[in-house]
Amino acid sequence: MRTKEMVFAALFAAFIGALALVPPIPLGFIPVPVTAQTLGVMLAGCFLGRKIAGISLILFIVLVALGLPMLSGGRGGLTYLIGPSAGYIFSWPIAAFCIGWATEKVWGKLKIWKVFIINFVFGAVLVSLIGAPVMAMITHIPVWTALVGAVGFLPGDCIKAIIAAVVAVQLKTISPIEEKVNSL
């Protein structure tokens, strides 16, 4: 891994940690709040590409495990990696990798609507499909109930997917994906 890639991975881990400053929005019907941090996951994937995005989110989780207050509401530590939000948090590297992979596939014909769909499918739907069953297992509720509760995340996730798509397309020329494509 090149120095530039390590810097991008660290910067995005820090950026996602900074998004924790946006107060979480509790939904009330499930114990996992709406946070701005999934915006960072989407941006990491569609700006950095699969490899750097995945590494960035793994680094983020390691920093949370070490106790740094990088989760919304200034939370951090192993407790939060085994609580109701655990499945959502552990889905982030997978989502970022998948978003990066799919974005790389359409890079030559990058359009906002394509990146929006990629972000929504992998940054919203996939995260919920991983996070909700884990939350159900931890909180001892039926999986179906958890999945229905996760629908509450979709309006905010749509907005985050649009923002990430617009930003990624606007910053295409400075993306590490662009550099990788041009070096081939």
UniProtKB/TrEMBL annotation:
Keyword Protein transport assigned: no
Residue intervals passing through the bilayer: 55-72, 78-103, 115-138, 144-169
Keyword Transmembrane helix found: yes
Gene3D superfamilies: 1.10.1760.20
InterPro entries in UniProt: BioY
PANTHER family recorded: BIOTIN TRANSPORTER BIOY, BIOTIN TRANSPORTER BIOY-RELATED
Entry's family note: Belongs to the BioY family.
Protein name listed in UniProt: Biotin transporter
Organism (species): Paenibacillus aceti
